[in-house]
Amino acid sequence: MVRRLIVMRHAKSSWKDPNLDDHERPLNKRGRRDAPMVADAIFERGWIPELILVSSSKRTLQTLEGMSHRMGKTPFEVRSGIYHATVIDLMGELEDMLDNGTTMIIGHNPGSEILVNHLSGEWHTMPTATAVLLLHSGSSWSVEAVIRPKEIA
What are the counts of helices (DSSP H) followed by strands (DSSP E) for the chain? Predict the structure, then answer.
């Protein structure tokens, strides 16, 4: 079996209520539209995760909820350490990823972009709801594909 990692940035969040703490910001209309669309694209490409690590923020949890029609039975773990994480924090969270199979991490920027760069040496811009598939081979990771909502809409 192959070791794969899907790094996903949460879907578009709302800035409508300036009194909300950043951690509590929900998805906006576009975010609620994009999350299920990206889930469909992930499954159509065969990137089916077997474990999901998700930030504790409202917008990441709502992103996962919006993907539940495809990922509703996938085991997931809510990780507060993913919220506003550095690349070192994210690498620590990934110590629990599957040795074989596909793990998904749903987080934030700039952490998501930095994590992809740290693992693969490649820079990929990750607008909201972008998912990047990385493949582990030997001792290195490579980017296999990128899904951006605007490119599949």
Answer: 6, 6
Question: Is-contact 10 104, C-beta < 8 A?
Answer: no
Greatest C-alpha distance within the chain: 48
Per-chain mean pLDDT for the chain: 96
Domains and CATH numbers, the chain: 3-152 (3.40.50.1240)
Q: At how many degrees (to 10) do helices 58-66 and 29-44 cross? A: 50
What confidence tens digit (pLDDT) does each residue in 35-90 have? 999 999 999 999 999 999 999 999 999 999 999 999 999 999 999 999 999 999 99
CA dihedral sign of residues 152, 54, 45, 5 = positive
